Amino acid sequence: MKPNFAQKPKVKICGIRDLEIAKICKEEGADFVGLNFAPSSPRKIDITTARKIIQFYKSQTDSPQVVLLFYKNSPEEIRTIRSALSHDYVQWVWDDPELASIYRIELLGENQICSYRVDKQILDEDLNSVPGEFLILDSYSKGAGGGTGESFNWDFVSKVTRKFLLAGGLNPENVASAIAKVKPFGVDVASGVESSPGQKDPQKIIDFIRNAKSVL
């Protein structure tokens, strides 16, 4: 049986790239924002802009926690970005085909959020070696670390009791029903609140967060 986390769902808005969107995330009560440094992602952010966002959050109370996201980054890139930017978590893809084993060593001691890509039924036992207080359960898409806008069969995670953020194909229209069905610790969205790849839509972000937080 799934646990009752006895709180409103956590919301993570991933792949923000400008300060105005960062301000909307804070105003609407997002719990986490993801800053994406994956080299091939349309959501890739530069360090200068990321620093401005982080500085703004640090100047405010009740700001979202900052997650640095890596996928197919070199260890050198990870070290440089981590040391340059204050952050709360580091996110990486559990089965990153080239660097997963390196990440596991590089990030020892960090607060980690691993994205575990789902393409079949999974149980808590399948997640035993995945570090972190909670993880992200996302749809599997070959060659992409996430943000594809594709969903997966939610029945595949129906027996998982560990805390997780549900991701994959979520948007303002379906997030409330997804939360009601899956009962996750929280939800994570990237493409579902965009007007085009990498371009966040302010109203979609507002609607997504409000709809997610409306679920009791």
TrEMBL record:
Record GO biological process: L-tryptophan biosynthetic process
Leading EC class: isomerase
Gene name tied to this protein: trpF
Reaction catalysis annotation: N-(5-phospho-beta-D-ribosyl)anthranilate = 1-(2-carboxyphenylamino)-1-deoxy-D-ribulose 5-phosphate
GO MF annotation, one: phosphoribosylanthranilate isomerase activity
SUPFAM superfamilies, per the entry: Ribulose-phoshate binding barrel (SSF51366)
Domain N-(5'phosphoribosyl) anthranilate isomerase (PRAI) span(s) in chain numbering: 11-210
InterPro entries according to UniProt: Aldolase_TIM (IPR013785), PRAI_dom (IPR001240), RibuloseP-bd_barrel (IPR011060), TrpF_fam (IPR044643)
Keywords for this protein: Amino-acid biosynthesis, Aromatic amino acid biosynthesis, Isomerase, Tryptophan biosynthesis
HAMAP family: PRAI
Protein name: N-(5'-phosphoribosyl)anthranilate isomerase
E.C. number: 5.3.1.24
